[in-house]
Amino acid sequence: MRRSNPIDNSDCRATPAATLATQRRVFSISEITKNIRSVLEENFSGVWVEGEISNFKFHTSGHMYFSLKDEFSQIQCVMFRSENAKLDFDPKEGLSVVCFGRVSVYPVRGQYQLYAERMEPKGLGALQLKFQQLKEKLKKEGLFDEARKREIPYLPNRIGIVTSIDGAALKDILNVLDRRFSTVSILINPVAVQGAGAAASIAEAIEDFNRLKNVDVLIVGRGGGSLEDLWAFNEEIVARAIFNSRIPVISAVGHEVDFTIADFVADLRAATPSAAAEIVMPMKEELILRISDLKLRILQAFTGFVKNLRQELKALQQSRGLKDPLSFFEIKFQRLDELKKNMTALFETLVRFKEERLSGLIGQLEALGPLSTLKRGYSATFKLPGETLVTSFDSVKPGDFVKTRLKKGFFTSQVKETHA
Amino acid sequence: MSQEPKDVPFETALKKLEEIVQHLENGDLSLEAALKQYEEGVRMADICSKKLNEAEKKVEILMKTSPGKFKTVSFEEKEKKSKK
């Protein structure tokens, strides 16, 4: 809500003496400081300032206090804890940096200063930019494509190494290789790994190996260092040499976190030179064990196979069918006879059983049926015509003809009277 | 003579050996096939063993004598010289 110009010029400008007494406006220090602050903040709220760090103090409060200076001037700076926690490098005395922030007043001291929100190292920033640009370019050209990467041989006959002859990297690689495979064969092509001409010398060494064709795999690398130290491995000439190599290349540059262009182009990226050595050569003892184990298994499997065959053969040879083929039929005939005999007997039993059961049933039927009642002297009367059984007096009328069934034969009669 | 053992890379021989062992262990082969596999397996195992045993430790440095011409020097010798 501040006005665009908080200082009313008519108030504080030197004015003719006559008006001074009535018109002069007196500020308190706090007021004038506040006004100055407003002016500064309005005009320098988002500025980039480039300079060299001096009087750097990393206060226990976590805030950073320093000045940025050039040949002729300097400006006080502060970078608060919340901002400097985001830095991915350590600001140091003498370092050229670019800071982004606002210029304001520290009222307690009446001092203007830059409140830095961001800081970038100047030299490094440029290198990083170069790195990004080359990375993009080579990526577009397909130098990083996984599909084109060559396979690393499993057990190389000879390993080519491109690194500094007296660097820690070579010592590490040789140590690890010696431990893993005592009878390894190595050819070193010594190069400068940093400084002017390093990139060209690395590229040439890779080309040498490709011309000589006397190694199966290449390890190209060096120990860890600053971005500047590793820079040769970010040069296009090295990337091209790795890309054009017909011999598979393992890159082994610096520490685990550093990725160089060489790492992206290489057929395999090892985090460190020691790691490259671990990757390139299997453990000899393990291989020897594995092969003797396989040899044993192949022998066991084969003897097992033959044993099985032999047992099958033996079983076949001992089978009766092979020994006495006719006996097979004899058995069958015998069995047939047996079955025939059995069947006849069974059939006879069945018939007998059925007959017995039938006569039993007939007896039962007779005992329950009307004939047995007739046998005991009862008779049954049927109305004629139709022969319906007469069980009640009102089913017949006088004059009807009826037929009476006896134990033996029947007779016909005419109804004379009916009674209830 | 079939293939010279030297022509078969170690890794190929090792892979083949492993396949053969699996085949044989699974069974269901004819006797002729099994015999063939067995012989091939033993041959592969010998190739592997030979490759492992034949190598001798050799660390050398490549030196450029003139453009396009090289010679190799033993690493140990050079180390000794430089230490003197």
Describe the structure.
- The complex is a heterodimer of chains A (420) and B (84).
- Chain A has 420 residues and is α/β, with parallel strands linked by helices.
- Chain A has 4 domains: 9-126, OB fold (Dihydrolipoamide Acetyltransferase, E2P), CATH 2.40.50.140; 142-282, Succinyl-CoA synthetase domains (Rossmann fold, 3-Layer(aba) Sandwich); 289-333; 374-414, no CATH class.
- Chain A contains 14 helices and 14 strands.
- In chain A, the strands form 3 sheets. In chain A, strands 1-2-3-5-4 form a 5-stranded mixed beta barrel. Chain A has a 5-stranded parallel β-sheet with strand order 7-6-8-9-10, with helices on both faces.
- The model of chain A is unreliable at 6-12 (pLDDT under 50).
- Chain B is of the alpha+beta class.
- Chain B has a domain at 5-54.
- Helices cover 60% and strands 18% of the residues of chain B.
- Chain B has helices at 10-26, 31-54, 75-83; strands spanning 58-66, 69-74.
- A two-stranded antiparallel sheet of chain B has the order 1-2.
- In chain B, strand 1 and strand 2 (69-74) form a beta hairpin.
- In chain B, helix 1 runs antiparallel to helix 2.
- Chain B is rod-shaped and about 65 Å long.
- The N and C termini of chain B lie far apart (52 Å).
- The model of chain B has no long low-confidence stretch (mean pLDDT 80).
- At the A-B interface, strand 7, helix 7 and helix 11 of A face helix 1, helix 2 and strand 1 of B.
- Strand 7 of chain A pairs parallel with strand 1 of chain B.
